[in-house]
Amino acid sequence: MNLMANILLNVLIAFLVGSVLFGLQRKIMARIQMRPGPPIIQHLLHTLKFFIKESSFPKTAAMPFYIAITAMLCVIWVSAVIVGPVTEGSLLLIFAIYALHKIVEHNAGSSSGSPYGKLSCVRAVFSAAAEVPLFAVLIIIYFATGTMNIAQIVSFQTANGPLIYSIPLAAAMFFVLILSKAPYSPFAITKGKDIISGYETEHFGLLRGYLMMSESIAWYMLLWVFLTVFIGGLSPLWYLVGMVSLSTIVAFINAT
Fold first, then answer.
1. What are phi and psi of 64, to 5 degrees?
2. Main subcellular localization, coarse class (predicted)?
3. Which strand (E) or helix (H) includes residue 255?
4. Distance (Å, rounded) from C-alpha 239 to C-alpha 154?
5. Are the C-beta atoms of residues 219 and 183 closer than 8 Å to each other?
6. 100-118 CB burial, b ≥16 within 10 A, e <16
7. Cα Rg of the chain (Å, integer)
8. Is 80 in contact with 48 (CB distance < 8 Å)?
9. Minimal CA–CA distance to 85: which of 245, 249, 243?
10. For the chain, what is the total number of helices (H) and then of strands (E)?
11. How buried is residue 73: exposed, middle or buried, by Cβ count under 10 Å (0-12/13-18/19+)?
12. Can you tell me the distance from the alpha carbon of 31 to that of 88, in angstroms, rounded to the nearest whole number?
C-alpha cells in the first residue's frame, strides 16, 4: 500500500471509529441515567448530515480567519494520524500537535464574534491546566525508555513489558488528560450546554461537519496514543477492544 492510500485509510478509520465511540459513550450514559439514548451511530450520522447542509456565515465573523481556523483543526488532527498510526514517528511531535490544537480551538470561538464562542475561548484557556501533567508524562516516558520515538517505545515494551506496569503514575496522568477531554458533561466545559455549543455555536453546514470530524479523529488519537505508549503495539482488534474499554470507563465516570 502506498503512503497516500495508507494515510487516507487511517484517517477514515480514525473518523469512523472515533464517531462510533462518541455514540457509544452517549448510549452508555443514557442507560446509566435510565434513558434509552440515541443510536450508537448518531454522532456519525450528525457529522455526515452537516456535510450536505447549507453553510452560512455570521455577520460578526472575522473572515477569512473564521473559515481557515476550521480547516486548520482538520489538518492538525490529520497530521497527528500521519505522525502516529501511519509512520509511528515522534511522540513529542504528537504532543506539539495537541498543543497547537489548543491554540486553534481558542481562536475558533473568538473568530465567530459570538459571546458563546468567546466564553468558550476563556474556558479553553482554563482547561489548559489539565495539560500541565503532559510534560511530566513525557519526561517519565523518556527516562523509562530512553526515546521519544513511538516505534522504539513499542519495541521497548516488546522486550521489557508494557509501560503501564512500570510507570503506572504516567499512565494515570495521561488517562486524566483523556478524561478531561471527554466530549460530554461535566468535563466538556468548552462546549457546555450553558454556552449552547461553545466555539461550535456559530459554525454551520460544511464547517460544522469539519469540526465534528476533527473531534472524532482527536478522540481516536488520544486513545491510540495511550494504548500504544503504555501497552504496546496491538492488533487492530485489540486496539478496538482497548478503545471501547477506555470510552466505556469515561462514559461511566461522566454519567455518575
1. -90, 5
2. membrane
3. helix 236-255
4. 14
5. yes
6. bbeebbbbbbbbbebebbb
7. 18
8. no
9. 243
10. 11, 0
11. buried
12. 37
CA distance 49 to 51: 5
Whole-number pLDDT of residue 98? 81
Is residue 111 within 8 Å of residue 247, measured between CB atoms?
no
Residue 47 and residue 212 in contact, taking contact as beta carbons nearer than 8 Å: yes
| 3-state per-residue secondary structure call for 134-178 | HHHHHHHHHHHHCCCEHHHHHHHHHHHCCHHHHCHHHHHHHHHHH
Distance CA(216)–CA(42), nearest Å, equals 13
pLDDT tens, 154-209?
A: 999 988 989 999 999 999 989 888 887 777 666 666 666 656 666 666 667 777 88
CB 183 within 8 A of CB 198: no
pTM beyond 0.85: yes
Is 114 in contact with 201 (CB distance < 8 Å)?
Answer: yes
Q: What is the pLDDT of residue 74?
A: 83
CB 220 within 8 A of CB 17: yes
- Location of C-alpha cell 457509544: 24
Grid cell digits, residue 71: 480547516
DSSP assignment of 203-253: --HHHHHHHHHHHHHHHHHHHHHHHHHHT----HHHHHHHHHHHHHHHHHH
CA distance 162 to 168: 10
What are all long-range contacts of 80-85, with beta carbons under 8 Å and residues at least 24 apart?
80/217, 80/218, 80/221, 81/7, 81/10, 81/11, 81/14, 81/217, 81/221, 82/7, 82/10, 84/150, 84/221, 84/224, 84/225, 84/228, 85/10, 85/14, 85/224
